[in-house]
Amino acid sequence: MPLIFVGGLIFGFGLGFSHMARPEVVLDFLQFTDFGLLFVMFGAAIVTGIAFAIMPRVSDRAPLTGDVYGRRLKSFDRNVLIGGAIFGVGWGLSGICPGAAYASIGIGNFTILWALAGMFAGAYLQGRWRSQRAASETTPAGAD
Question: Are 113 and 101 in contact (CB under 8 A)?
């Protein structure tokens, strides 16, 4: 758990330091007037890519969970496209993605709590919808 806290601390500090925890910076990026977010994302992707390439060679198990490293391949399907589009609309309307929203609280943007409440409610509703859909697909026709 302490390692997770340290990771979150570094993540939040990095978002705050790069000004990515400010919705106006994210909205400027989405309107193609400030490309700083692009460089922050590329920098993070490069560091993460290196870590994902090196860690399985250093240890065969994840340090926190003890699980064996493996690739989880997710098919590119209709749900990925629809979910990505919905996520993008929410990101555009709120001006911030979930990780940066938490960091935004740390820089005093308490209005973002409305967006976080919406994220939790949306995730909860989607989980309920998926559970009900799965239950209806497994229930035999004509069963009460």
Answer: no
- All structural domains of the chain with their residue ranges: 2-138
The pLDDT tens digits for 48-91 are 889 888 888 888 887 777 788 777 777 888 888 998 899 888 88
HEC string of the chain equals CHHHHHHHHHHHHHHHHCCCCCHHHHHHHHCCCCCHHHHHHHHHHHHHHHHHHHHHHHCCECCCCCCECCCCCCCCCHHHHHHHHHHHHHHHHHCCCHHHHHHHHHCCCCCHHHHHHHHHHHHHHHHHHHHHHHHHHHCCCCCC
What would the pLDDT profile of 4-27 be if each residue is shown by its tens digit? Answer: 788 888 888 888 888 888 888 888
Give the phi and the psi of residue 35 in degrees, each rounded to 5.
-100, 15
CB 99 within 8 A of CB 87: no
Q: How far is it, in rounded angstroms, from Cα 31 to Cα 92?
A: 10
pTM reported for the whole predicted model: 0.63
